[in-house]
Structures are given as structure tokens and as C-alpha cells.
């Protein structure tokens, strides 16, 4: 075995271990905290005007021009013509600069108007504005590691009873949890079958990490103090079923995240519904969400 083969083997195992770490630490991927009060107070960008700065300089150059004795003797007016023509070209340059600035202003104003309207809606507790802001943040490029790898598929967000935020997400064990482990053995990559309990335990940590990630996103984007996260599991046949429903409180979450605990250990502190057994199928069984209507007594 040469050095290149060994380096490739080490790199392959390292990437595999990085994946295992990522799916258990989705909640550590930060989302910026929004300051809607500050955004609402931002003034609108000023509309540009034609300043004719270049034309003024060209006119000053013409005013300051004094032909030398040789130009006067020979009647050479080329310098004068050049300075005169420069005024027209400078004016055209000023207009082109204005057009460019105006296009940028339109874009900036549109961005400002959207943020201003959205911030005021959120500060006025408008549910539609808050849901729009959260949905946009969930697809933010900052979350590219989550979105691009499909670690979390956002289903829909809503407000129950008009005030309690409910976030619904989908996860797919078959796309995320490996069936085999990659280990380095005598300089080569060796594949080892992952036991059912080991696979399901890893799956649960991934699901819990996704819940914590979504809760943090909600708290960083919106002025909410609690949120319900429902997790749907997508099966191989594309059918779905709810496997976890959790009510997360902001203050408690911020306190718990100080510790370096496993996602599943953190989740145990919150009111949640799940039916998990590491020795069974995909580990989870279907459950009713926290907001599922109670059966009508006969």
C-alpha cells in the first residue's frame, strides 16, 4: 500500500465520521438572531439624483484653460475643442452613473420595504408575517448544510389557536442513517454492518437534534417563548407518519444548551410524545401530536 492509498482511506473514514457527527449536531448550526425593532427603525435608502460631478470638473478645466503663446500664434484650438467636448462626455458619464445608482436604489428600496413591512407585521403580532419570516429563514443560505443535504425537510408552519407556533418537519432515515460503518483496518477501509439498535439509537439522536435546531430557529427569528415541533417520518414507500411531537420552551432550551449533552438527553426535559424502541424496525412507532383532537367519548 502506498502513501496515497493510505491517505485516501483515512480521508474516507474521516468523512464518514464527520457525517455521523453532523447528524447528531444539527442543532449546533447557528441561525442569526433577528432584531425586528432595529429593522423597523431603519430609514429608507435615499433616492439618487443626477449630481453632474464629472461635468462640473470638465467645465472647471475649460474655465482654467489658458492657451500658450504657440497655440495663439498658430491658431491651434484642438485643446479648446477637446475640453469643450469633454463637457458633453462628462455629462453622459454622470447620467450613466445615475442610471446605475438608480437600479441599485430600486433593489435596495425593495429589500428595505420588504423588511420594513415584515418587521412591523411581526412586532404587531401578525401571524402571516411571522410565518413568512420563519419560512424564509428556514431556507436561508446560512442553513445550506441542513437544506442541501436534506437533513431537515420543512413541511409547513402554522399557529394553533392563533398564538402557539407549530412547526412540522419531515425526516428520512434511509437517506441519512448509514447501514454500515467505515473503520480503518491495517490502512484500508473496512465496512462493518451497523446493528439495528445502534442504527436506531443514532436515528433518534438525529431526530432530536433536528427538533432542537428547528426550535432554536423559531426563537432566533421570531419573538416566541415556546414552540411545538412535530416530526414526520418518510418511509421507503413514501408514506409518512408522525413519530415525535415536542413542546419546547425558550428559556429552558437556552439553559440546557449550555451543557454538552446528547440531543435525546436534552429533549427529555421537555413535554413530548414518542414511542421509541431501539430494537424495533425503524425505532419509532406512529404517535398522535400534542394538538391531536381527543377522541369523542361514546
Task: Explain what you see.
- With 298 residues, this protein is α+β, with helices and mostly antiparallel strands.
- The protein has two domains: 1-28 and 140-298, no CATH class; 32-126.
- The chain contains eleven helices and seven strands.
- A five-stranded mixed β-sheet has the order 1-2-5-6-7. A two-stranded antiparallel ribbon has the order 3-4.
- A hairpin with a 3-residue loop joins strand 1 and strand 2.
- Helix 3 packs antiparallel against helix 5, helix 5 (78-123) packs across helix 6 and helix 6 packs across helix 9 (196-221).
- The chain is elongated.
- The chain starts with a helix and ends in a 24-residue tail after the last strand.
Summarize the structure.
The protein has 298 residues and is an alpha+beta fold. Helices cover 50% and strands 17% of the residues.
Write the layout of secondary structure elements.
Elements: H1 3-23, H2 36-41, H3 53-64, H4 69-74, H5 78-123, H6 127-138, H7 144-147, E1 153-160, E2 164-171, H8 173-176, E3 180-185, E4 188-193, H9 196-221, E5 226-234, E6 240-249, H10 250-256, H11 263-267, E7 271-274
Parallel strand pairs: 2-5
Antiparallel strand pairs: 1-2, 3-4, 5-6, 6-7
Amino acid at each position: 500500500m502506498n502513501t496515497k492509498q493510505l491517505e485516501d482511506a483515512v480521508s474516507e473514514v474521516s468523512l464518514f465520521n464527520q457525517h455521523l457527527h453532523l447528524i447528531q449536531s444539527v442543532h449546533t448550526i447557528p441561525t442569526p438572531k433577528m432584531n425586528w425593532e432595529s429593522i423597523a427603525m431603519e430609514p429608507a435608502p435615499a433616492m439618487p439624483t443626477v449630481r453632474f460631478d464629472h461635468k462640473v470638473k470638465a467645465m472647471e478645466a475649460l474655465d482654467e484653460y489658458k492657451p500658450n503663446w504657440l497655440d495663439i500664434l498658430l491658431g491651434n484650438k484642438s485643446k479648446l475643442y477637446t475640453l469643450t467636448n469633454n463637457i458633453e462626455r462628462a455629462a453622459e458619464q454622470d447620467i450613466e452613473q445615475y442610471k446605475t445608482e438608480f437600479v441599485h436604489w430600486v433593489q435596495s428600496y425593495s429589500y428595505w420595504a420588504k423588511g420594513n413591512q415584515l418587521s412591523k407585521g411581526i412586532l404587531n403580532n401578525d401571524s402571516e408575517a411571522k410565518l413568512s419570516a420563519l419560512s424564509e429563514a428556514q431556507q436561508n443560505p446560512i442553513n445550506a448544510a441542513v437544506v442541501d443535504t436534506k437533513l431537515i425537510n420543512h413541511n409547513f408552519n402554522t399557529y394553533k389557536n392563533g398564538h402557539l407556533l407549530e412547526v412540522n418537519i419531515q425526516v428520512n432515515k434511509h437517506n441519512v442513517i448509514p447501514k454500515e460503518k467505515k473503520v480503518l483496518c491495517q490502512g484500508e477501509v473496512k465496512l462493518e454492518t451497523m446493528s439495528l439498535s445502534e442504527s436506531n439509537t443514532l436515528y433518534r439522536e438525529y431526530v432530536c437534534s433536528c427538533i432542537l435546531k428547528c426550535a432554536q430557529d423559531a426563537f432566533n427569528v421570531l419573538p416566541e417563548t415556546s414552540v411545538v415541533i412535530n416530526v414526520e417520518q418518510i418511509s421507503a414507500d413514501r408514506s409518512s407518519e408522525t413519530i415525535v411531537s415536542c413542546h419546547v420552551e425558550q428559556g429552558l432550551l437556552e439553559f440546557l444548551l449550555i451543557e454538552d449533552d446528547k440531543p435525546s438527553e436534552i429533549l427529555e426535559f421537555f413535554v413530548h410524545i414518542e414511542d421509541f424502541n431501539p430494537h424495533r424496525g425503524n425505532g419509532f412507532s406512529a404517535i398522535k401530536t400534542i394538538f391531536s383532537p381527543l377522541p369523542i367519548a361514546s
